[in-house]
Write a structure and sequence with these properties.
Elements lengths: L6 E4 L6 H9 L5 E4 L6 H4 L6 H4 L3 E4 L7 E2 L6 E2 L4 E2 L4 E2 L3 H6 L6 E3 L2 H14 L5 E3 L6 H8 L1 H9 L6 E6 L5 H4 L7 E7 L2 H7 E2 L4 H13 L3 E9 L5 H15 L2 H6 L1 E6 L2 E2 H10 L12 E3 L4 E4 L1 H18 L5 E4 L1
Parallel strand pairs: 1-2, 1-3, 3-8, 5-9, 9-10, 10-11, 11-13, 13-14, 14-18
Antiparallel strand pairs: 4-5, 6-8, 7-12, 15-17, 16-17
Helix pairs in contact: 11-14
Bound molecules: iron/sulfur cluster.
Iron/sulfur cluster binds next to strand 7.
């Protein structure tokens, strides 16, 4: 259970139900009032070495930007929702690109306003829309602090139209199993070989626990997707990922295997990651490999086309063998 070291908060959070609840829940934790959750000067000044220590803080504010971004993968819109950042520290986390070393967990207490916008947009649309609510954080992790997933599903389930989706790397799903979600929610569990989880995805759930969570969610009637992501081309990556596919084949329940869909995403890395990681995790493996990666613009690194093509062929072949009836939404 996450116990914050210090809470940085905007004073107006107490005008919201969730703000009051969090202040009560953490009444023993030292607090510092801030003007704006987006700009905490003492955090920006900290060194990369302090990255993990910074992740022990919790920031509570009010979300001011509510712009939906069109998306054409597993949803129609990416929606800024109830949190951004995370207490975990995956070495490739793309939130580090967006927030740099300030990718600590921020909670936003104006959830009514955010969900209201989703509901109004979905009910106005002629088409059935899907909203990705977890692109800025991990909502299963967040739920363990705020219960916001429970709140969201309960308040969304009776809308006339629309669906919600979010990815996660955590297994604490028991709170949402009992809810009457009415089939409107898709949970997409991200998986990786234990070798990668142990060395790269610090602070997230183990593979076995994630697979158990998939089986429980399916049993509870949720739509379930599986993200094999990000695929990291370490030296023996084909062996590792073949083993992962075999583990999924043997440990997923019949129900989960029947209609889970897959998304497969190769890792994107960046100059910012290399700088933070070499100082914050000096003993960790180096995810940047100049021989197989190329610059992808704005300081980003991607696998070179020939390696990606080979990777795609590998996954298509193995998935065809072990999961011939499951749809692969995309491989990117
Ligand atoms: S769990 Fe997700 S949001 Fe959290 S650090 Fe890892 S990739 Fe980032």
């Amino acid at each position: 259970m996450f116990k914050p070291k210090v809470i940085y908060y905007e004073k107006d959070i107490v005008n919201y139900e969730l703000g009051k609840e969090l202040m009560e829940k953490y009444k023993e934790v030292p607090k510092i009032e801030i003007e704006n959750h987006n700009n905490i000067e003492e955090m920006r000044k900290k060194s990369n070495k302090e990255f993990i220590d910074m992740k022990r803080n919790l920031i509570i504010g009010i979300r001011k930007t509510h712009k939906f971004v069109e998306n054409h993968k597993t949803s129609d819109y990416l929606v800024p929702y109830t949190s951004s950042g995370c207490t975990a520290a995956c070495m490739y986390c793309y939130l580090v690109c967006n927030y740099n070393k300030c990718s600590y967990l921020r909670l936003f207490v104006n959830r009514e306003q955010m969900l209201d916008k989703i509901i109004k947009t979905s009910e106005k649309s002629e088409k059935e829309l899907t909203f990705e609510i977890g692109s800025n954080s991990d909502l299963v992790l967040e739920n363990s602090i705020t219960k916001n997933l429970v709140w969201t599903i309960e308040n969304f389930k009776d809308t006339k139209k629309g669906r919600l989706t979010f990815p996660t790397k955590f297994d604490m799903v028991d709170d949402i199993l009992v809810l009457n979600h009415k089939g409107k929610v898709t949970v997409r569990m991200s998986v990786n070989p234990d070798y990668i989880i142990n060395r790269v995805e610090f602070g997230t759930s183990r593979l076995d626990a994630r697979i158990n969570a998939i089986n429980k969610l399916k049993e509870a009637g949720y739509n379930v997707g599986i993200l094999i992501a990000p695929v990291i081309m370490v030296e023996n990556w084909k062996e590792l990922y073949l083993e992962l596919i075999k583990i999924l084949d043997s440990k997923l329940s019949k129900k989960a295997k029947k209609d889970a869909f897959f998304e497969i995403i190769f890792m994107t890395y960046s100059y910012v990651h290399t700088k933070i990681n070499e100082e914050a995790f000096s003993n960790a493996i180096n995810l940047y490999n100049k021989d197989i990666m190329r610059g992808g613009g704005r300081g980003k690194y991607r696998y070179k086309e020939e390696y990606k093509k080979d990777g795609e062929m590998f996954f298509r072949k193995q998935m065809n063998k072990y999961f011939p009836n499951n749809k692969i939404e995309y491989i990117v």
